[in-house]
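Supplementary Text 2. Reproducibility record for the structural model of the 734-residue chain.

All settings were left at their defaults, and a single model was retained for analysis rather than an ensemble. We include the record here because the model underlies the residue-level annotations in Supplementary Table 4.
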Amino acid sequence: MEPTPTHHTPVTPSTTMPADLPGMAEQAWQRWWPQRIGWRLALGFGVLVVLMLVALAQATYQIRNITGVTQRFATGDMQRLLRVQALSMQTEGVGNALIRLINAPRDSRVAEYADVDERNRRIDGAIESLVQDMRGSDQEENLKRLVECRAVYAAAFIATADEIEADNSSQAWRLLNDRVNPALKTMLVESNALLQSERQRIESQLDDAQRQFERAALWVAGLSLLAVVLATWLGVRTTRSVVGPLAQLEVAAQRIAEGDYSSRVSTTRTQEVDRVGQALNTMTDAVAQRERDIEHLAFHDPLTGLPNRTALFQPQQASATEPHCLALMDLARLKAINETLGYTTGDTLIQQTAQRASLALQQAAADGLIGPDPIVARLSGGTFAAIFSAPNRATVEALRERIEQAMGAPVQCSGHSVDLSLTYGLADSGDRAQGSKALPVDTLLRNAEVALHSAKRAAVGFAWHSEAQEAARLSHLSLLSDLRQAVATSQLQMWLQPKFSLATGRAVGTEALVRWQHPTRGFVSPAEFVPFAEQAGYITLVTEWMLQQALRTLAVWAPTHPELSIAVNVSTRDLQHKGFAERVARMIEASGVPAKRLRLEITESGLMDDPTHSVALLYELREIGTPLSIDDFGTGYSSLAYLQKLPVSELKIDRSFVDKLDQSPGTQKLVRAMTEMGHGLDLMVTAEGVETEAERETITRLGCDVMQGYLASKPLHGDKLQAWFDALPVHAAS
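Retained model, structure tokens:
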């Protein structure tokens, strides 16, 4: 009979094994796998610890079993084996002892009996102990036969012993051969069988113990191998679940370091890594925002929001028209406003100026007056720069008028109405109709700054940059570069202008004036280099050189004219130097000239730049013994409150008040007031710039003490100075 065929429904692989089985397994594993690294490590180490504990427990259990087997073998099996061996030996030995007993003479039988009895007792003791130890074992039948043989032997031995005592040796030998030896032989066979059985049993136990030990070793090795495999698997799994996300974090950090803040760190199934990733995303947003803020601060003015100087020098966006013009605008009186009305008011004015200028330029661009996209930037303080494109200078001036109109309305701030007044420095790249190319922004800015300074010096509203200004600026720079060399090589000259007493007509001293004889330029006027040396800080070198020359001259004059003094002008820079008084004291001490013969002249405006520090410095100079004079009095803005605090001994009225004084009654009243004020403060009053006899008579009538000017003497140098000095009446030192 053929088997009935079984019909099977075709099964597609998708019903028996999903195509995405590895992915499903991975998803199941991910659901089971802890999301925290700490739990993963705890799970891995926990499993390893459990496996190690199981291996340790198994090893301990097997060691205990082996120890028990060893103890049983040493205390039981081996002792029993030894007793069985002793039984065999005693059984063999008792036959020989009986032979010696039969053959022994009567008088020697006692010792032989003792030996036979001792052997019999040992046989009995061994059998008895074996019976007790092996009761219930599989050797019990052997023991019964052994006991029966022992009984047969005992009866045969007694019968043999009786025949020996009856001196019937032939019968004794017959009993020994017929009954004793067969019984002993049977006992020996049974004891050997028992010995062999014990040996086999012990060997079997040892084999069992060896097999148990090997199984324990396999268990421990298997558990250890499992622990190693599991540890490796957990390590790889944990490493992959940590190192991979950490690598992503590293890549994200590198992108952040490179300035890419657009990408985000994706989430993983590791909580710690996700927290770090979220922190990186937050940090990315914060850094990106901070960089935007820093970039804005780097290129914009925080007060006005306008671009700053740095932004002005950035490459401009490509446009149809390049900027050819730059207007530098400076807010007038800002320092005075800050000092008088406060910095809040000054900031308000700056903001209003920025807004109005920006709107004016935007409207001008919308009207087509200038090119598109003009830029207004704040450079520093109240200085602004406007860069734009214009066809000609007339258009730029029209734009300036628009800005002026925008500044027309006063600003109301802090309860005050303040006007906005700007001074302009204008610069362009030349006539665009002739195809001139746009100059770089830094060049335009430099030219506009030169024009701005020209406008300020000329006290006009605006000025254009010109080649003459550029030449003058380069000349000034060159002069400043040569000035240090001029001081070192004595290119400078000290000219002296005498001062005369109006009461006696005699010379009371001189004022030192610096002149420069340049090796290539020839004579350089002080007006050309002193103001710029003051600005650059080189004037301190000139002052020190003049002090040294004055002290040398006074040392030469000392034997014949100790009454004469030399006055040296001190600049504002010198007054700002903390060590100026100490430097003057060292030079006076080194020269050996009395300090009262060196007079220092300080301008009124220089004193008021920093009155607190200047007054302290003047007191230090007075402590040295140097007389002090206020030069150009009346041209500054000092107050009587400061004047009465100054430790000065001379007041010099500026030449602007002396010029044509005899023809100006109003000026005479001012000079009389200044003279009376000076006398009221116990000061000697000197009039500067006296050039006519009428001026001399007028200042004498108004009460001045000393005159200085071309009427008495022009500044002298060289032979003319020596001739004037030689003509003075000798007034030797006492």
